[in-house]
Amino acid sequence: MSQQFWEMLVSGAGAIDVAKTSPALQQRLRRLSEDLAVILGGCDALARDDILARLCAQVLSHIQAADTAAREALATPAEDRQAIDGQPPRPGELSPELLEWARQQFSAEEIVAGLREIRSTGGQELTDFLGEIDKELAPRE
Amino acid sequence: VSDTTDAPAPYRVVYSERVKNELKLLAARARERGLIVPFRAALLAMDQRLRLYPQFGQPLRDLVLEPAQLWIGVIPPLVVQYSLDEERRLVMVYLPIVPLPGSGL
């Protein structure tokens, strides 16, 4: 079944051609389909179809919730738009209390050490380790 | 009429090993507190903002021993501190991303 599911993903005529996505994404999708096959393996065909349909609806609902939250977080404040348009940005709106709290989070030595470390190692982009973050976010059984 | 856009090249955003490890701990905490969706959305939005317009934050302090400035940006429930290298169009996140006070994270 997982092979069927995978083939459907790869050859489907949907908006996204899975075969052209990154190898890492392909691998995660394949693993997901295999896990699903194991979970649903003991169900009869009717139950399996029902569970898959509900699962699709749940996944779409999660994506929609994440999109909404991201859109709200990304809504460009007026001062940002003004700056993008070439006008000087107005001062941010973070409160003095929050700024003071933030300054107390890390010492000057910690900051300099961190800066030197990242300059020497080059650092990693979020896409390099997003999978590790997602593992931590995945619900535990 | 030209088809080309005047959009500037995005910044490259890099995170230190320490930041990555602390983010994993924060992600586990977000899961335990039922904040998976807002945490992940904020993280992705923060990364995107830093790539497109890192000046969305504001300068927090000048560094004494380095010719750099530390900036702060807030995308609830997360707070990020970072340095900007305008010449290389590079954003460096090397201090752990922390929860915004009162955010429940």
What would you note in describing this structure?
- The complex is a heterodimer of chains A (about 140) and B (about 100).
- Chain A has about 140 residues and is mainly alpha-helical.
- Chain A is about 70% helix and about 0% strand.
- Chain A contains 7 helices and no strands.
- Chain A is elongated, with a radius of gyration of 23 Å.
- Chain B is α+β, with helices and mostly antiparallel strands and about 100 residues long.
- Helix content of chain B is about 30%, strand content about 30%.
- Chain B has helices spanning about 15-30, 35-50, and strands at about 10-15, 60, 70-75, 80-85, 90-95, 100.
- In chain B, strands 1, 2, 3, 4, 5 and 6 form a 6-stranded mixed sheet that branches.
- The radius of gyration of chain B is 15 Å and the shape is globular.
- The N and C termini of chain B lie far apart (about 50 Å).
- The model of chain B has no long low-confidence stretch (mean pLDDT about 90).
- At the A-B interface, helix 3, helix 4, helix 5, helix 6 and helix 7 of A face strand 1, helix 1, helix 2, strand 2 and strand 3 of B.
Q: Quickly count the helices of chain B.
A: 2
* DSSP helix fraction of chain A: over 70%
Q: How many β-strand runs of chain B?
A: 6
Structural class of chain B: alpha+beta
**Rough shape of chain A?**
elongated
Describe the sheet with the most strands of chain A.
none
Provide the succession of SSEs of chain A.
Answer: HHHHHHH
Spell the H/E element sequence of chain B.
EHHEEEEE
Percent of residues in helices of chain B comes to 25-40%
Q: Biggest interface and its residues per chain?
A: A-B, 48 and 55 residues
Oligomer: heterodimer
* Cα-based radius of gyration of chain A, to the nearest Å: 23 Å
Total beta strands of chain A: 0
Low-confidence stretches of chain A: 78-91
Mean pLDDT of chain B: 91
**What structural class is derived from the secondary structure elements of chain A?**
mainly alpha
What is the strand content of chain A? Answer: under 5%
How far do the termini of chain A sit from each other? 23 Å
Low-pLDDT residue intervals, each spanning 5 or more residues of chain B:
none
Q: Termini distance of chain B?
A: 50 Å
Strand portion of chain B: 25-35%
